[in-house]
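Hey L., structure's done. Input below.
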Amino acid sequence: MTDGPAAGRTAPGPTAPVGEERILLGLNTFGDVGENPDGSPQRHAEVLRQLLEQAELADAVGLHAFGVGEHHRKDYAVSAPEVFLAAAAARTSRIRLGSAVTVLSSDDPIRVFQRFATVDAISNGRAEVMLGRGSFVESFPLFGLDLADYEVLFEEKLELFDKVRAQKPVHWEGRTRPALAGLSVYPPLEHHLLPTWIGVGGTPESVLRCAQYGYPIIFAIIGGQPRAFKPLADLYREAMAKYGHPMQQIATHSPGHVAETDEQAREELFPHWLKLRNKLGAERGWGPAGRGEFDALCSTEGALYVGSPETVAQKVVRLKRNLGVDRFDLKYSNGPLPHAAMMRSIELMGTAVAPRVAELLAS
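Output:
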């Protein structure tokens, strides 16, 4: 085995902390498959075309980032994030484009780097990658991998990716793929190292691994209370200092929906949230959900960012002040929520939530 990540690396500017009076606002989606008027599922191709419209709108209203998550199941349309991002790069001009997340365990780290380096070139330096193990495991049997190797696959592939990302000849050996002895990987990025995040679900071990590599971190907060993640955010800060890395951004991702009023936002989202929640719950052995759980998650301290622009802005500011995060990404797609409702949510996020958040933080 090789000797782990390089220490003391200088991080690229795109992921430097933003300070106490700012927070960056982004969006992400898994390309959730919606429903036609007759209740039948949309075609995946139609969902992907609508996603391009959503990315264009996010760019037009000035949001910071747009991410698409990799899945390999019938209820999500995005299985090749980089292909979509390359198309989005041609139709946007400012917004950062990334994955949310790339399932590194079941991919080739060299090809992941090459594909995102290509997106970076096409987008004039706007690409970023979020690496993770993913909360679904369909990619393992699909690509002929053994779930018994779940941990070692991620650890070794992350180590290899880090060496490729350095844009120097790669020397690496492990047990999950053949060794590399001084080979170079192309294309290189023009002006910086590829901004690389690690997505974590909330374990100290994952936080420490991220800090070991000196990468920015994004917490997936989909239940409970966001303030409960403060010990993990503090652990990341402490570990980054211990490893001698310059501080990077801390981000969170949570589902939500923005509409003109709190009542409208909740009523638009609830049936779609419930359908998705109970579908996943049945797969994972959770009990059925109801309106009480939904309303609790939409409350002031809950993990869903649902409501009017004022309500969502206040909740984002509370997140900033409680956890000190630099960035918040709203998962604006939730089950079969209609395209028109998502477009309005994106529009309000950029034109109403973002300026209100800035105003509140400046006061």
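The two ends are 52 Å apart (CA to CA). The CA atoms of residues 150 and 168 lie 28 Å apart.

-- N.
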